[in-house]
Automatic annotation (TrEMBL):
Pfam families: NMO (PF03060). It comes from Bradyrhizobium agreste. GO terms for molecular function: monooxygenase activity. Transmembrane segments: none annotated. The lineage of its organism: Bacteria, Pseudomonadati, Pseudomonadota, Alphaproteobacteria, Hyphomicrobiales. SUPFAM superfamilies: Inosine monophosphate dehydrogenase (IMPDH). Keywords: Flavoprotein, FMN, Monooxygenase, Oxidoreductase. This is Nitronate monooxygenase. The keyword Flavoprotein applies.
Amino acid sequence: MLQTRFTKLVGVQHPIVQGGMQWVGRAELVAAVANAGALGFITALTQPTPEDLTKEIARCRDLTDKPFGVNLTILPAIKPPPYAEYRAAIIEAGIKVVETAGNKPQEHVDEFRKHGVKVVHKCTSVRHALSAERMGVDAISIDGFECAGHPGEDDTPGLILIPAAANKIKIPMIASGGFADGRGLVAALALGAEGINMGTRFMATKESPIHQLIKEKIVANDERETELIFRTMRNTSRVAKNAVSTKVVAMEKEGARFEDIRELVAGARGKMVYATGNSDEGIWSAGQVQGLIQDIPSCAELISRIVREAEAIIRSRLEGMIVQPQREAAE
């Protein structure tokens, strides 16, 4: 068993996290992750109202008695969701760990901590991680450029970002972006992280609440099957490469503004991808890690395999590379 500061902080068996994913982080997936000894997060804003979130948390509790959390992503919007009401629903439901992402979450951090809720904040740069640490969060999730969703604007891959953050961050930190197996877990630990966060890999599991054809598409795709949209708007998002994303990138190159592509990138269209199995229906998030995903296991199978592989690499492969220097023969 691999125990780290992060597993002790959040009270789980394995240093593996299923982070928040819009339309995907639902009770059936989160409970399966929790039952396998890892930490899953329900995505708050997938639920239409705070009342629906309360029901989803209850549904998850019916499926597991293990710890799980809720993701609350704070993003700029013309008509922002009622964040304070979602926050209140999380606190009132007795959730003990929250994953925050997006804009400075100071008021949310203060309120959560007042009620004994641990906060894990997602960041895409060392400077933002240090800012979150000063803000009082309990742990950092550091996202490399490989990740699905928003990788920030610095384009720093995990191989650099994780140890750069580990050099400066004192609180526990987990690594996000590009993780799918035991090799990645060992690499993250070696680079200074206390565990890994996976999104795309958990999308391709039996309990993931998305269409089987999308799971099979993730398996079929290689590491080149993503696009970076919104680059020209400095709000970069890594999504699965399809007819829609390719069109958006082409329009951006021709100077398109957000109003020109709004219909193409609408969240409602992206939601339909997961419902219908038509991967060209809209924009949907996926990382470069698709190139490492070759099957659709249960969450229990996936998590136990990752831990087993990681332990074998540490005990056998790495330890086997250490050799004692032979003493020179006495003259």
